[in-house]
Amino acid sequence: MTPIPWWRRPPIALGVAGGLYACVFGIRAAEVVDVEAADSLLAAPIALAAVAFGLVGGLGAGLLAAGVFAAGEAMDSADLTWDEVAVRALGFAALGWFVGAAAMLLERTRARFMGAFDDAPQGIVLTDAAGRISVANVAIGRLVRRPRESLVGQTIDSLAEPLDLGEDDEQRRALLANEIRGYTLERRLVTSDGQAVPVQMAVSRMGSRREPSDLIVHFVDLSAQRRYEQQLAHLADHDPLTGLFNRRRFDHELNRHLLRVARHGPTGAVLLLDLDHFKYVNDTLGHSAGDVVLRAIAAALADRVRAEDVLARLGGDEFAVLLASVQDGTELEAAAADILAVINEVHVPMSSEHGTGGSPVRVTASVGAVLITAFNEADRLLAAADLAMYEAKEGGRGQLRVHTPTSAHAQRIRAGFTWGERIRRALEDQRFRLHLQPIVPLTGAGQKQYEVLLRLDDEGRLWQPAEFLGHAERLGMMAAIDKYVIEHVIGLLGEMPSAARPVLEVNLSAASLGDAEIHTWIEEALKQHRVRAGNLIFEITETVAIANLGLAADTIHKLRAGGCGFALDDFGVGVSSFYYLRELPFDLLKIDGEFVRDLPTNRANQVIVRAMIESAHGLTKTTVAEYVESREVADILRRLGCDYAQGHLFGVARPSAEILGVGSG
Question: What is the pLDDT of residues 363-376, one digit of tens each?
């Protein structure tokens, strides 16, 4: 038989083919896993497919070649026989099987990728270097509300809002020049119905560094995020109950108006509106009914004010209006009267659950007004309007009061600003003085007891509480004054020997009652100075207690649990004295001086005081009569069974240093 040339032998042919096969796919796999391309979504599946194809094909061909070579050598070197033809055919069939298997592997990889590509929640497109779309997934079609097939062949810029075009020109140039790995920016896409959709667009390359490549672009819909941001921005400036501007935004708009006034001349006015007896609505019908009323009033006011005006709910039942173009007092009174009439006409329907029997609720409002010409500072304008509004309430409610520079309350405003500075200075420079007035037992022996009375030392003059506490309350400074007094009282007691310490009564304001942490602060101060809580009695007026019933009860319970006592001052002046006597856990009742001064000549007051004392004793509480200035009054109180008395008969208020022997007085 004729020998077969070596280059025609099947093992050699198959070995050469397999080697070339492995080299080609090895090179391609190395290109695909280039560092730049590894950042793209396609790199991982293509690299796996190429490597698998190369290895399976190359190794399979090599093994097959080795097997055929062994079979060929076993034959004699002779002419080709049918057996050898069969071996060749089998070898090439096996090679075809390997190639087909590799192709199936690639197809499965491609199908998995396309499934992930199409099902991705984000919009994804593949483009050429010019930005022309070659592949688009389902999400991008939904985003722009078009069939995704219609996007193929279009450019990304054709989908964008025209005003956003050109923003990424420099970044795209740098990306195509391999200067950056990718970039991200925000832009708007235009939907098929002309709506602009905010998106975050991320662009990166897909190919290797050595050749031009396609781009892969991701789009993340920012619509929900933008809506959430808008909601937060709206809440920052608007009252959540009524939808009106809140205090923060009203202050901002008022200051903007004052800047315009500074440039163009004074115009405009500020109104403060406070609903009359609104607390009664909340207390009798419930807070949900109160919310219904507030929303109805807000809607009525919003319909009344002009677009150039600013309407806000400052909090609670208080509203404010900036009338931007009012020129004088006549216009102001007319506009304010119109607003009052609008409120008076509001009939708020109530559901049966509110207990009104289906009857609507009506409310009135007290209005304070001030022209911008009066002041050029927002704080002073609001303070003037606030005091005018309180003057309207004092005048009978449902009324309007306009601030004028010569009015009585204008003088109170000026005095208020002066007193605010005095009070701040007194707090900073320790210029408040503590005076003590004795409280003495009327029957038998009792503990040594004094009421702490405050004085303000201003350049050598001692101001009485009635001259500055009202200003302090309006300016929100009562809590600071209370803490000053309590801290100094506890300090004085701490300087004294334990056995010599008296019981001191300290007044507590509504502001301190509303402080949820006041009891903790007092307990820490007592521990620091090693003073018994029983040496402190806190006085609360009946009117303050009634106005803050929930807070009063909570604060009193917490401090009494720590050992402090409580006294109800001015007992008898309120309309529900005996009811609150039962509800609030007081230790002492201080009978108001109006019932005490004329006891010898007023039979009715004797009956009332007797009833107070007997009721208090029935509830195991101690009584103290105030403003006792004569022996005759003291004797009557003693016969009626009153426990303690306080007044000029037993001693006037004197500096604490004179009485206790410690402190500066």
Answer: 889 999 999 886 77
